[in-house]
């Protein structure tokens, strides 16, 4: 980050658990290669300082040009139903519990300017999306590889937004990799689901109702995120060319219309596009096919 020039467009990030592995977890602290650098928090604090203008953890970033407010979830999350690494979170984030974390996210929601389009950005996704190993936030590791591994505080904050009349068209996260643990080599994680964008207290409605707003839950944790660019491997213009993984979300009238998965070359050429999601109530299939062709051209 110290040597990165930010692009002209808006950038937002939330830190993940591996950004604090050698600082937060007892195993990481024990095996840290940075012990001689003083306090175990030094490297994490350097990351926070370097990213201070784009880090939205527990914050709100309003994007007036797009009429969107981005709400950051809990940084450095390990996922799961329990509060982990409390001393670290208290020292570095000033947060003492899941309830406290929820309140921090809710405060960011309450400050958002764009009530009709709240986008959550988090490292770990919300709880309540399934407990199978292949579920979008399902546990696929350990001696008991099943269970809901989503963040409880994030789920409650999404509910807070809905009860306050905010619309939540999109929640973006990662953490749980698409490629599952070796125990489930023949399976692949579900990377996108949608649910009614309504409060849990609301009267039960049909999800198929054309008037029911939707929340798209998008897991972007495709690992590895960088692959060799075989198409340009023999091109003398490139030195070890690579492809980089991206997701692209198209909004129309504050609703998620299309979600693409893209592999982009080192020079910005899109070489592969997959349509992950399409809401035919928002845009036509012809438009999706036309946009996909333009992306690849």
Structural class: alpha/beta
Q: Strands of the biggest beta sheet: in what spatial order? A: 1-2-3-4-6-5
Strand content: 15-25%
Radius of gyration, whole Å: 20 Å
| Low-confidence residue ranges | none
Offer a concise description of the structure:
This protein has 7 helices and 10 strands.
List keywords for this structure.
297 residues; alpha/beta; six-stranded mixed β-sheet; four-stranded antiparallel β-sheet; 7 helices; globular
Strand and helix map with partners:
Blueprint: H1 21-24, H2 26-30, H3 42-50, E1 60-63, E2 68-72, H4 86-92, H5 98-110, E3 118-121, H6 152-163, E4 170-173, E5 192-196, E6 214-219, E7 226-228, E8 242-252, E9 255-265, E10 270-278, H7 285-296
Parallel strand pairs: 2-3, 3-4, 4-6
Antiparallel strand pairs: 1-2, 5-6, 7-8, 8-9, 9-10
Helix pairs in contact: 5-6
Q: What would you say this structure looks like, in words?
A:
It contains seven helices and ten strands. The model has no long low-confidence stretch (mean pLDDT 90). The chain is globular, with a radius of gyration of 20 Å. A hairpin with a 4-residue loop joins strand 9 (255-265) and strand 10. By secondary structure, it is an alpha/beta fold. It is 21% helix and 21% strand. A six-stranded mixed β-sheet has the order 1-2-3-4-6-5, covered by helices on one side. Strands 7-8-9-10 form a four-stranded antiparallel β-sheet, covered by helices on one side. The longest helix has 13 residues, at 98-110. Helix 5 (98-110) packs parallel to helix 6 (152-163). The two termini are 32 Å apart.
